[in-house]
Specification:
The complex is a heterodimer of chains A (115) and B (509).
Chain A lengths: L1 H19 L4 H22 L25 H31 L13
Helix pairs in contact in A: 1-2, 2-3
Chain B lengths: L2 H19 L4 H29 L2 E5 L8 E5 L1 H24 L2 H5 L2 H17 L3 H20 L4 H32 L4 H10 L3 H19 L7 H5 L5 H25 L5 H25 L3 H22 L2 H32 L10 H4 L1 H15 L5 H15 L3 H27 L9 H14 L3 H20 L1 H16 L1 H9 L5
Antiparallel strand pairs in B: 1-2
The chains are: A mainly alpha (115), B mainly alpha (509).
Amino acid sequence: MNVVLAVVIGGLYATGLYMMMRRSIVKLIIGLALLSHAANLLIFTAGGLTRARPPLIPEGANVPPAPFADPLPQALILTAIVISFGVLAFALVLIHRAYGTVGTDDLDEMKATDT
Amino acid sequence: MRVLLVLPILIPLSTAAVSLVFWRRRSVQRWMGMAGTSGLLAASVWLFEAVRREGIQATQVGNWSAPFGITFVADLFSAIMVVLTGLMGLAVAVYSLGSVDRRRESFGYYPLLQILLMGVCGAFLTGDLFNLYVWFEVMLISSFVLLALGGERGQLEGAIKYVTLNLLSSAVFLAAVGLLYGLAGTLNMADLAIKLRAVEQTGLVTTLAMMFLITFGVKAAVFPLFFWLPASYHTPPFAVSAIFAGLLTKVGVYALIRVFTLLFVVDVGYTHTLILVIAGLTMITGVLGAVAQNEFRRVLSFQVISSVGFMVMGLALFTPLALAGSVFYMLQDIVVKTNLFLVSGVAHRLCGTSELKEQGGLYATYPAFALLFLIPALSLAGIPPLSGFFAKLALVQAGLAAQSYMIVFVALAVSLLTLLSMTKIWNEAFWKPQPPESLPAATQTAMRAAAVSKRKGLGTLIVPIAILAALTVCISLAAGPVFALATVAAEQLLDPAGYIRAVEGGMTQ
């Protein structure tokens, strides 16, 4: 399972970075979305995978029985998903406005502020 | 739970919330902006006094004991930074009254400024790496909107670069946090400080250190990750540029200093040498960019990068004197940089342009204003007896003591070039006569008409500039006591035991 997820995460990072290096701003945003998915899956995997062992404490015990899934990474991911949703929504509006104002979706044309 | 530590977050948050209720009433929002930043300043001074008297303060939100709950910590370094955030917030809020246009005001400029300040204070005060990520995002999202608000072409193009590179850095941050949690099983910084010292795979820790170096390096705008900064900082209104230049990169530097003194000190020989090289290159590229530019704010943008090099240099040398130099450099540079950007706004209003070639004659018409520019500009260049001199003196002494002669040479050469770029602004904007013949006739008529309205509202622009210039002079005159404060802050940074004890004080073990 770890290997499968590692390959998936690597694939997501590679695809995301490739999309970001294209010239279209729409692909830039798709790339950013893929990157945040990759980061979320990475947290999930790095936190340790324990299948089918929910962290439930049986009656009469103080701690759940030994190998149990760590709920914290999932809480972190949930927060990160919400944040990346908000940021992506903003980024979409931004590229829409930029497309309307500059009149192109080509990043290479957007160099009025460079020197 | 001590309310003292969360006040610098609660005050801007509630101010923003109340301002949003008065969405259609600009005058209420303007007053709320002033009141909120004044309250923030008062709360931050209170916090600073408490930290100075009683040592490091920590609190656990909701009394969840330390490694599990949300921790806020204020050591002297954070407290100083929070005070400066309050000061800059107030100065920029006053400056905004006379400089931000009606359209931006009615689209929530003042609440956004409050949210930005909340994010900055949160980043300075949090004691948990994941919360640091969240505060960074709060800060970034509000800065995105402040940058793009107004929707001018330059703003939108600048915003796309700013947003992309900062989101990329956030993705790296998130990945690094996830891997660190996998390695250490905690994200509380005090707890991490203990656990990372016991980790056997130091290679893995150093790899994570590099990821954090990249992510905070983007936020701090160090070489070679700074490209978003000069592409975007000259596009928004001057008040926004000023608060960005004053605070945002410094939050990155603060985070670098925090993690590379508290967490990643297992392989100092490798990590801090790398940081030293980065510091040198950041100074050089920043100042060369500044010398090459011909627009007021672009020169200043590159100077922001160059100064970050100095602050990081103190971290890289990693001695008590060097870190004290870094802290002192940061605290005086925040004042100086904010002030220079505010000055550029007034110069723009008086000349009708920010292109240095088309500006001129400011010294002849407004000699007092010219003096207000000279104080921060000479301080930035490190001319004695101004505050920048003492900061650079400490860093150079620390470099000599550590026998890093190369970085000392670079720092001195860069200071000289900084003086050159400041002299260029002085010559072009202030000293040389105004070049009227270079302008088309229509612009001249428009400018003559504008000259009448120029002075209108100029008071609200000059007052914060004068106060910040006076503050620079005060820091310069009181360099001894202020440096003593920075030394204590550096000692706290270099002795993580105190930080850990303060956080664990709330732990029930």
